[in-house]
From TrEMBL:
Organism: Streptomyces roseolus
Membrane topology field: Multi-pass membrane protein
Principal subcellular localisation of the protein: membrane
Keyword RNA-binding in annotation: no
Subcellular location per the Swiss-Prot or TrEMBL entry: Cell membrane
UniProt keyword annotation of Transmembrane present: yes
Family: Belongs to the DedA family.
Protein name, per record: DedA family protein
Record keywords: Cell membrane, Membrane, Transmembrane, Transmembrane helix
Transmembrane segments: 68-91, 151-175, 187-206
Domain VTT: 45-172
Length: 220
């Protein structure tokens, strides 16, 4: 196997990029797949680093482009299936029991979430694979709701292939400037976090106001 391109100034020397580079250098495509499988299980491992780096390695002949896309997509599916299994093992009854112990939430909230997932679960799993952060998380409710495994695998494979292809090909095209991909996707990830926090703050504010208004309503 051709060694990882050590002569380039942009060679990752440490951190997550160095770890991923070591896996690809040592194991080739299966190493890239293992890194992405772990990224699904531990979202703090950023696919926006691992995937462009794999594309960069493909451009340097460490592995073929087809191998990069195959193994990273397989890794995505394996990681997502593990999270699906966790959701299925946790189960609906345990979810309701846990939900009932949480403050400021109602069983009706969970029931509405379930109803939404039943209506839009197919789109959520497919498109969620292309959204930073939710790429991993979407597998858990799919398991809780027991989405048919063949359908889950199909949607996960298609969605993962699209996401992985974009980032791997970007790294392949950019060469030793592959880190630019991380910068742009990182901005998108931060935007998602901000939107989620804003939505959570809005929901919490509304719920607290309703809870505070209930006694006055009863006295009236």
């Amino acid at each position: 196997m051709t060694p990882f391109p050590t002569a380039l100034a942009q060679e990752p020397a440490g951190g997550i990029a160095g770890w991923a580079a070591g896996l690809v250098d040592t194991l080739g495509g299966p190493g890239a797949g293992a890194a992405i499988a772990l990224e699904n299980l531990f979202p703090p491992l950023p696919s926006e680093v691992i995937l462009p780096l794999t594309g960069f390695a493909a451009g340097q002949g460490v592995l073929s482009l087809a191998s990069a896309l195959f193994w990273t997509t397989l890794g995505s599916v394996v990681g997502a299936l593990a999270l699906y299994g966790i959701g299925a093992l946790f189960g609906r009854d345990r979810m309701y029991a846990l939900w009932g112990r949480l403050p400021l939430v109602k069983v009706a909230d969970l029931e509405r979430t379930e109803a939404w997932f039943r209506r839009h679960g197919t789109k959520a799993v497919l498109l969620g694979r292309m959204v930073p952060i939710f790429r991993s998380l979407i597998s858990v409710p799919a398991g809780v709701e027991r989405m048919p495994v063949p359908l889950f695998l199909l949607l996960t494979t298609v969605g993962s292939l699209v996401w992985n292809s974009v980032l791997v090909l970007a790294g392949y095209a950019l060469g030793d400037r592959w880190e630019l991909v991380e910068s742009y996707v990182g901005v998108a990830s931060k935007a998602v976090v901000v939107l989620v926090l804003a939505a959570a703050a809005t929901w919490l504010t509304v719920r607290l106001r309703r809870r505070g208004a209930e006694p006055r309503h009863r006295r009236a």
